[in-house]
Specification:
elongated; about 100 residues; 7 strands; about 25% helix; three-stranded antiparallel sheet; two-stranded antiparallel sheet; alpha+beta
């Protein structure tokens, strides 16, 4: 990777789904189908959201509201083209029009 790269950071809930598939898994599959250079899914250990409630692992290490982050990287020019195309198509949050 010698060309300039862009990083896209996507946050979803661990319990979110898309057509009965975990949303984070569906997003990574879509990114893979689009030939994005790379994507990694990470779960949050501890965090605080806009409602000021602390999210953490609960009893036995299980949480029902844990945040999952997806880090996707691709070359800058291709990312700009995809973003412009998604904007023209009127894509919204949780859409797969990247």
């Amino acid at each position: 990777m010698t060309e300039p790269m862009k990083l896209r950071l996507i946050f979803v809930s661990e319990t979110d789904t898309w057509n009965e598939t975990p949303l984070y898994q569906a997003i990574v599959q879509r990114l893979r189908n689009l030939n994005i250079a790379g994507a990694t899914v990470q779960t949050g250990v501890l965090g605080s959201g806009h409602h000021m409630r602390v999210h953490h692992r609960g009893l036995f290490g299980v949480s029902d509201d844990r945040t999952v982050s997806i880090v996707a990287v691709d070359d800058e020019a291709e990312t700009s083209r995809r973003t412009a195309r998604a904007s023209r198509q009127g894509c919204r949050k949780a859409s797969f029009c990247f």
